[in-house]
């Protein structure tokens, strides 16, 4: 059986018995106007409008589209709506289970449909980042010859996960996480619509708010949780989905957390202060509260990056590397897997040796600048790479450090007003203890004291 026949059979079953399909499938928008969120892609004249033949672009849209965004933001939905609006055959494949054989079967079916029936095909390929280079290469002839309109979806950065030839032939559209208002509107529609729950249940405000926290901007997750909770309520003969019923249905306790209010900042503050205080267990607790409340993982990652420099600094230089790597990973994978990455970084930062010497150093330097303690740049440090610089005395007398033993030249670098001013005072904690010894030797050399004799090596050794 061709892959597109699976999709056709599923659609036929849904039409005959809508209740047999999951709520998230039943509530799939049937037109671009029903899509929630992503308004930057749906305004008049936007690429998706042109893809379905709306606006000045006419029916000729791009031959390939890459949809990049977090899970549950509507990538599959948009592909389905495009196929419905253009009356094209819709074929859905997942890179998790499909290979080159299945792709070639779809392409051959698309060529036959186009030649025999004049019917164009939309191929929706989910998780394209899981395809190898060779598998992605197999798509190129179909895209170049427009045998199919390829709509590929990925949760990972396509500049890293999609081959350049395919990326250059595609229109890249970035989907944003859904807002709480977007998800709230979808929940209201699902409760009321005949193809949804048909008004069989109601949602109290506290239940709705917890559904929003569970969803975390993921429409599919919101509808799945709603369906489970509504089913549990109806099984108990209740028309109202209470918070305890929802909690039992999704096996997740309601977390007291207001992402737009004081608790948002209180819990974030507690997380960072626990990391600073090296209490790894408390830090993990507050991280878990933020995750369960549906906090934006990028916000958490940003806070950890700041903490790596503010509270750890050179006591463990790998802390910043870990935090930055975590932020990059979070941007590529999203929840729920990002919870592991954030926990990894939180534990590493909480257990790292602590130093705020870097924080104090830049603070003191900025205080001096704000107080007007600056002065002109010493003449020997000024730019000498232009005509007339020599006459002005610029760069004259500058000693090139690599020309002297140890590569540390005894000369003044700071303006006269700040000569000898010290900002960085390293601690003796962790790796910074080494810097404490080095900085003293380097300062001695810069001041013309403690010169190494021949063969004595670098002051930083």
Task: Please describe the topology of this protein.
Blueprint: H1 3-16, H2 23-26, H3 39-42, H4 47-51, E1 64-68, H5 75-86, E2 89-94, H6 100-117, E3 121-126, H7 133-137, H8 140-144, E4 148-154, H9 158-161, H10 164-168, E5 171-174, H11 180-192, H12 205-215, H13 219-235, H14 243-250, H15 262-276, H16 280-292, H17 297-312, H18 318-333, H19 338-351, H20 357-370, H21 432-446
Parallel strand pairs: 1-4, 1-5, 2-3, 3-4
Helix pairs in contact: 11-13, 12-13, 13-14, 15-16, 15-17, 16-19, 17-18, 17-19, 18-19
Describe this structure in words.
- Helix 13 (219-235) packs across helix 14 and helix 18 (318-333) runs antiparallel to helix 19 (338-351).
- With 461 residues, this protein is of the alpha/beta class.
- A five-stranded parallel beta sheet has the order 2-3-4-1-5.
- The chain folds into four domains: 3-174, Rossmann fold (3-Layer(aba) Sandwich), CATH 3.40.50.300; 180-250, Helicase, Ruva Protein, domain 3; 262-351, Up-down Bundle (Zinc Finger, Delta Prime, domain 3); 372-446, DNA polymerase III clamp loader subunits, C-terminal domain (post-AAA+ oligomerization domain-like), CATH 1.10.3710.
- Strand 2, helix 6 (100-117) and strand 3 form a beta-alpha-beta unit.
- It is extended.
- The protein is 49% helix and 6% strand.
Q: What attributes characterize this protein structure?
A:
461 residues, five-stranded parallel β-sheet, single chain, Zinc Finger, Delta Prime, domain 3, alpha/beta, disordered N terminus, Helicase, Ruva Protein, domain 3, 4 domains
Can you summarize this structure?
The chain has helices at 3-16, 23-26, 39-42, 47-51, 75-86, 100-117, 133-137, 140-144, 158-161, 164-168, 180-192, 205-215, 219-235, 243-250, 262-276, 280-292, 297-312, 318-333, 338-351, 357-370, 432-446; strands at residues 64-68, 89-94, 121-126, 148-154, 171-174. The protein is an alpha/beta fold and 461 residues long.
């Amino acid at each position: 059986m061709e892959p597109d026949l699976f999709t056709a059979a599923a659609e036929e079953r849904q039409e005959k018995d809508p209740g047999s399909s999951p709520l998230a499938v039943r509530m799939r928008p049937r037109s671009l106007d029903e899509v929630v969120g992503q308004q930057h892609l749906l305004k008049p004249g936007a690429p998706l409008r042109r893809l379905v033949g709306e606006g000045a672009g006419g029916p000729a849209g791009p031959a390939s589209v890459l949809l990049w965004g977090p899970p549950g933001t509507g990538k599959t939905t948009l592909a389905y709506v495009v196929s419905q609006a253009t009356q094209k055959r819709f074929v859905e494949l997942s890179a998790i289970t499909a290979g080159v054989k299945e792709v070639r079967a779809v392409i051959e079916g698309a060529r036959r449909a186009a030649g025999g029936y004049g019917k164009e095909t939309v191929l929706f390929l989910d998780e394209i980042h899981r395809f190898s280079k060779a598998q992605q290469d197999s798509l190129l002839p179909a895209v170049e010859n427009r045998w199919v309109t390829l709509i590929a979806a990925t949760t990972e950065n396509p500049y890293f996960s999609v081959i350049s030839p395919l990326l250059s032939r595609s229109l890249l559209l970035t989907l944003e996480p859904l807002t709480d208002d977007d998800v709230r509107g979808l929940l209201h529609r699902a409760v009321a619509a005949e193809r949804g729950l048909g008004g069989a249940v109601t949602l109290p405000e506290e239940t709705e708010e917890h559904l929003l926290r569970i969803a975390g901007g993921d429409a599919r997750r919101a509808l799945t949780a709603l369906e489970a909770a509504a089913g549990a309520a109806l099984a108990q003969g209740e028309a109202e989905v209470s918070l305890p019923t929802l909690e039992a249905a999704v096996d997740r306790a309601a977390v007291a957390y207001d992402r737009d209010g004081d608790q948002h900042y209180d819990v974030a503050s507690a997380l960072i202060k626990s990391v600073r205080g090296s209490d790894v267990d408390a830090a993990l607790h507050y991280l878990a509260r933020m995750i369960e409340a549906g906090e934006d993982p990028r916000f958490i990652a940003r806070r950890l990056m700041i903490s790596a420099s503010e509270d750890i600094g050179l006591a463990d230089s790998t802390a910043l590397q870990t935090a930055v790597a975590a932020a990059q990973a979070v941007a590529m994978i999203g929840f729920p897997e990002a919870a592991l990455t954030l926990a990894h970084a939180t534990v590493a930062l909480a257990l790292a040796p602590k130093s705020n010497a870097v924080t104090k150093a830049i603070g003191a330097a900025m205080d001096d600048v704000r107080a007007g303690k600056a002065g002109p740049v010493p003449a020997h440090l000024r730019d000498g790479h232009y005509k007339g610089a020599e006459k002005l005395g610029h760069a004259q007398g500058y000693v090139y450090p690599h020309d002297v033993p140890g590569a540390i030249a005894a000369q003044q670098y700071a303006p006269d007003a700040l000569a000898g001013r010290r900002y960085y005072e390293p601690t003796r904690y962790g790796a910074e203890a080494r810097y404490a010894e080095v900085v003293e030797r380097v300062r001695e050399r810069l001041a013309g004291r403690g010169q190494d004799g021949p063969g004595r090596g670098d002051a930083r050794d």
